[in-house]
Amino acid sequence: MTARRQDYYLDELKVGDRFESGGYTFTESSIIDFAFAYDPQPFHIDADAARKSNYGGLIASGFHTLSVAFRLIYQTGFIRSASMGGPGMDELRWLKPVAVGDTIRSVGEVREIAPSKSKPDRGILKFHLTALNQRDEAVMTVTFIILVKRKRGA
Amino acid sequence: MTARRQDYYLDELKVGDRFESGGYTFTESSIIDFAFAYDPQPFHIDADAARKSNYGGLIASGFHTLSVAFRLIYQTGFIRSASMGGPGMDELRWLKPVAVGDTIRSVGEVREIAPSKSKPDRGILKFHLTALNQRDEAVMTVTFIILVKRKRGA
């Protein structure tokens, strides 16, 4: 299933469930502003240096791409009430640069569901995310590990 | 060695080299502003909801902690000229919440150095980072995979 419905709890999800977000366009100012605070490498904040780099122009910080991709999938509301935060992420790969004007959307898929043995009200969701650009090229993949409440109202 | 010197190239680094940053204090407004843009879960942006959550108060988005921890280690200048960007990250773990007023610093360690077989001017650096709070508790660990130029001037 590809779902756009909202607000699942762990017991309502199953392996293979998919969620797809809307898009977000990376502007020059958003790329420079984020990177100036968190990742001030020349190819993220200096248009002239970026043109002379391997990338041929400004590209978004990978941390910016990650943060936007998470916001987009979270904004679908798929675990709006049930999320209890995340213990981690595995195998993040930045596959292609995100340039000024690129539009990114997120596609998420449930990979693993593991109810906690010690705490019956919660469990671990492993959730694979692919961020795609406007040419449907994967620019980033990652697996999130998220602590999720099992049942509505519990 | 624990280094505070700057601007290494891949051939100048060796496994075990360590770098330590200064600190950064997470304020309430920085936590809320970052999360409102990228990770608007209630326990990151709503002080009242956060007080009633498992966390007992506002905590920083993990993406915020990650971005700050990278900025702090990058700011040491350890690969200022040589970094060509990052293919990815492995095994990120958020081990403890970062609350309002917590001060985080980064300790990085070279774990693996692999010159490229196809491109003699560069190679892959695997760099393990631990973010520590003011009580010296690890709040996050992650391994960065970074593409680094091998030699100065090459």
Q: List the quaternary state of the chains.
A: homodimer
What CATH architecture of chain A would you give? Answer: Roll
The proportion of residues forming helix of chain A, as a percent range, comes to 10-25%
Number of domains of chain A: 1
- Helices of chain A, by number, come to 4
Q: Termini of chain A, distance in Å?
A: 26 Å
In N-to-C order, the SSE pattern of chain A is EEHHHHEEEE
CATH class of chain A: Alpha Beta
Strand content of chain A: 25-35%
CATH topology of chain A: Thiol Ester Dehydrase, Chain A
Gyration radius of chain A, in Å:
17 Å
Question: Strand pairing plus helix content of chain A: what structural class?
Answer: alpha+beta
**Which regions of chain A are unreliable across 5 or more consecutive residues at pLDDT < 50?**
none
Biggest sheet statistics of chain A: 6 strands, mixed
Tell me the overall shape of chain A.
elongated
The largest interface is: A-B, 30 and 30 residues
The side-by-side strand order for the widest beta sheet of chain A comes to 1-2-4-5-6-3
CATH homologous superfamily identity of chain A = Hotdog Thioesterase
Overall mean confidence score, pLDDT of chain A: 95
Kindly state the number of beta strands of chain A.
Answer: 6
Explain how this protein is built.
- The structure is a homodimer of 154-residue chains.
- The first copy, chain A, has 154 residues and is of the alpha+beta class.
- Chain A has a single domain (2-149), classed as Hotdog Thioesterase (Thiol Ester Dehydrase, Chain A, Roll), CATH 3.10.129.10.
- Helix content of chain A is 23%, strand content 34%.
- Chain A has helices spanning 28-38, 42-45, 47-52, 62-75; strands spanning 2-3, 18-25, 88-94, 103-115, 122-132, 138-149.
- Chain A has a 6-stranded mixed sheet, covered by helices on one side.
- Chain A starts with a strand and ends in a 5-residue tail after the last strand.
- The model of chain A has no long low-confidence stretch (mean pLDDT 95).
- The A-B interface holds A 37-41, 43, 53-55, 59, 62-63, 66-68, 70-71, 74, 83-94 and B 37-41, 43, 53-55, 59, 62-63, 66-68, 70-71, 74, 83-94.
